[in-house]
Amino acid sequence: PIYCAKKTKTHKDELGICRVLLAELEAHQDAWPFLTPVNHRAVPGYRKVIKKPMDFSTIKEKLTSNQYLNLETFIIDVNLVFDNCERFNEDDSEIGRAGHRMRRFFDKRWTELLQ
Ligand SMILES: Cc1nnc(-c2cnn(C)c2N)n1CCCn1ccnc1
User: What is the per-residue burial (b if ≥16 Cβ within 10 Å, else e) of 7-28?
Assistant: First the structure.
């Protein structure tokens, strides 16, 4: 059609996309470092270095308690998981590599879902 309005997504549509994306992140084989909050009592330096801890279970709790205004605020929290991982872990480490793989997977999936 000549006139093609950009279909705006309702809040419900966006939250549906967040649920799909989070389920895929949690199911990913490289998700294991990010499934639950880092135990900062057991990980020296973590609380000092990482000002805003974030993990997939916390994101799920925020999603189910309607704390995300839109897809963007959800994406900000997911990226926080990966940015924290990069800050605290060497690129050439098990957890560092898992973080890079998960970020690449997430970037690919949300751009696909938004097309
Ligand atoms: C996420 C994340 N970023 N850094 C760590 C971590 C935890 N301990 N150490 C020495 C790190 N560098 N994590 C959490 C990884 C959670 N984990 C570790 C083994 N199974 C889950």
Answer: eeeeeeebbebbeebbeebeeb
* Per-residue pLDDT reduced to its tens digit, 59-96: 999 999 999 999 999 999 999 999 999 999 999 999 99
Mutation test residue for ligand 1: of 35, 43, 57, the one with most atoms within 8 Å of CB: 43
Pick the closest to residue 62 from 51, 75, 47 (CA basis). Answer: 75
CA of 15 to the centre of ligand 1 (A): 28
Give me the chain's average pLDDT, please. Answer: 95
ipTM confidence score: 0.93
Residue 11 Cα, ligand 1 centroid: separation in angstroms? 34
> Which atom from ligand 1 is nearest to the alpha carbon of 32?
21
CA distance 63 to 68: 6
